[in-house]
Amino acid sequence: DSVFAHLVRAPEDPILGVTVAYNKDPSPIKLNLGVGAYRTEEGKPLVLNVVRQAEQQLVNDRSRVKEYLPIVGLAEYNKLSAKLILGADSPAIQENRVTTVQCLSGTGSLRVGGEFLARHYHQLTIYIPLPTWGNHPKIFTLAGLSVKTYRYYDPATRGLDFQGLLEDLGSAPSGAIVLLHACAHNPTGVDPTIQQWEQIRQLMRSKALLPFFDSAYQGFASGSLDADAQPVRMFVGDGGECLVAQSYAKNMGLYGERVGALSIVCKSADVASRVESQLKLVIRPMYSSPPIHGASIVAAILKDRNLYTEWTIELKAMADRIISMRQQLFDALRARGTPGDWSHIIKQIGMFTFTGLNSEQVAFMTREYHIYMTSDGRISMAGLSSRTVPHLADAIHAAVT
Ligand code: PLP
């Protein structure tokens, strides 16, 4: 008998499992709104033009080799990534108070940051928003932190529960870590306003809570890289410390290249360099060093003025298509006279809409309309097109009437 005979089958990942179910459905009208990846108006995955150009440059450069990167990754990439999120003129960068390490996309950056904190920070409790991306509690628990939640979303308004958020962070123990979605909160699409961010900042600094930003959608939310980085820059601008996990999965469409970065903003250059030395000890036994290809693409784009400009145009086009899908879905529900207030569809931001549909309604839409989404009613706006909006609107209408 197998030494593994006692194993029970593990459940599918709740998000990736949606695609597994979708793939099994033979219906020609099936629609996958579970994936967190951009699709074109034709429903196809997109490789950005600038990415193609950068890859061509890399291929043509015969001096490039496939040697190992250092433990912390590509130095040039790390510098450019810190600049992208903190701003080119960031005093923290100029004062060498930021240490940045290349990690395996957003997930890997969160995991390395979590393990570093579990080893070296005095407070092991991390507060994550309720709800949040399903992987967050697992990443931080396995990193060795103790996970608690703070109120974030109010189902009644389908908006931010700002009072609840302030109360929960206000009663958190001094020094606790707080995970913040930098923009385009997943799964709710609900972000604090800049005024609310300022109140959150003041509260957190007054209680010495440590901010850990998850920036998976910079530029993807509003279409502007700077606007989407504003909350992070407010926290760095006050001179305090924080961690930032960046991902290029969505904003450069580099999902499978697994390219991200963890930056830790410190109070002095001396501390930052000791932090970096300890990050190496976290990374080395985990995967030794990160992959070279994706980081080389990103560095080629970020350092070249023309490629950078072209990237911002392509990024804005993706963001704009998503915003237009919101409007079209909202208009289609209105045209059908679908009961309820659907204005949250156009108010929410980023890749997802938190529809407010419950799990029975979701199951109904999958069964009767072959529309696939997570059971919490989250739909990926990036998976929609002008052609499929009417089908989705029909399904929502039928589900709620
Ligand atoms: N954080 C959030 C909030 C996300 O939505 C995602 C992706 O869905 C990630 C992090 C990490 O993605 P990746 O590891 O592909 O960069």
Structure keywords:
binds pyridoxal-5'-phosphate, 401 residues, alpha/beta, single chain, 13 strands, seven-stranded mixed sheet, two-stranded parallel sheet
Biggest sheet details: 7 strands, mixed
Q: Which structural category fits the helices and strands? A: alpha/beta
Unreliable runs: none
Beta-strand content estimate: 5-15%
Radius of gyration: 21 Å
Q: SSE string, helix = H, strand = E?
A: HEHHHEHEHEEEHEHEHEEHHHHEHEEH
Overall helicity: 40-55%
Tell me the strand order in the biggest sheet: 2-10-9-8-7-3-4
- Each distinct ligand: pyridoxal-5'-phosphate
- Measured distance between first and last alpha carbons: 54 Å
Q: Please count the helical segments.
A: 15
Q: Calculate the mean pLDDT score and round it.
A: 96
Overall number of strands: 13
Protein name: Aspartate aminotransferase
Catalytic activity: L-aspartate + 2-oxoglutarate = oxaloacetate + L-glutamate
Family: Belongs to the class-I pyridoxal-phosphate-dependent aminotransferase family.
Subunit structure: Homodimer.
Break the fold down into its secondary structure elements and pairings.
Layout: H1 16-24, E1 31-32, H2 49-60, H3 75-86, H4 91-94, E2 98-104, H5 105-120, E3 125-130, H6 135-143, E4 146-151, E5 153-154, E6 159-160, H7 162-170, E7 177-181, H8 194-206, E8 210-215, H9 225-237, E9 242-247, E10 259-265, H10 269-287, H11 293-303, H12 305-336, H13 344-347, E11 352-354, H14 359-369, E12 371-372, E13 378-380, H15 389-400
Parallel strand pairs: 1-12, 3-4, 3-7, 7-8, 8-9
Antiparallel strand pairs: 2-10, 5-6, 9-10, 11-13
